[in-house]
Specification:
By secondary structure, the protein is of the alpha+beta class. The protein has a single domain, classed as tt1808, chain A (Alpha-Beta Complex), CATH 3.90.1570. The protein contains 2 helices and 9 strands.
Length: 149
């Protein structure tokens, strides 16, 4: 897999039925190692090990309902009251982070109404802080530590 702009961690990979799988510490199981999953696992470990995000307040593949359609947010961070406060959308490293990606995460936010939106392909990462009173957002230069959100 490609080297990402995220810190390395002790990756757990195994072969199962001819497929390479990577361990997801949040779902506590091995998942097929796709380029997007490679980014997700690196990013989750970065948040936990370098930014102080509690494992117990992070979740992967959160189902959301829009009418009769179910979509899935890649990762969601909750506060101590279990209110969603951050949505994270991952793409494979070869996927450009275009307006379409921001539109996708904005759709999720119509349902969750979080304070932070993050998109990452492991090479580039963007984070927006929402200001609902002013109906605007600000791009931040880096992911804040958990204690600062």
């Amino acid at each position: 897999m490609i080297q990402l702009n995220l810190p390395p961690y002790n990756i757990r990979i195994q072969e199962q039925n001819g497929q390479r799988k990577i361990f997801d510490i949040l779902r506590r199981k091995y998942l097929v190692l796709t380029p997007e999953e490679w980014v997700r696992q690196h990013f989750i470990h970065f948040l936990i090990n370098h930014k102080g995000y509690p494992t117990t307040l992070l979740a992967n593949e959160i189902p959301l309902k829009i009418g009769d359609k179910t979509i899935r947010a890649d990762s969601v961070l909750y506060n101590r009251e279990l209110k969603p406060i951050m949505i994270i959308e991952y793409k494979a490293p070869h996927i450009q982070l275009t307006q379409k990606v921001f539109d996708q995460i904005s759709t999720y936010n119509l349902l969750l109404h979080v304070d932070y939106l993050v998109v990452s392909n492991g090479l580039d990462t963007y984070i927006c802080k929402m200001d609902y009173d002013k109906q605007s957002y600000t791009f931040l230069e880096e992911i804040p530590d958990y204690q600062n959100i």
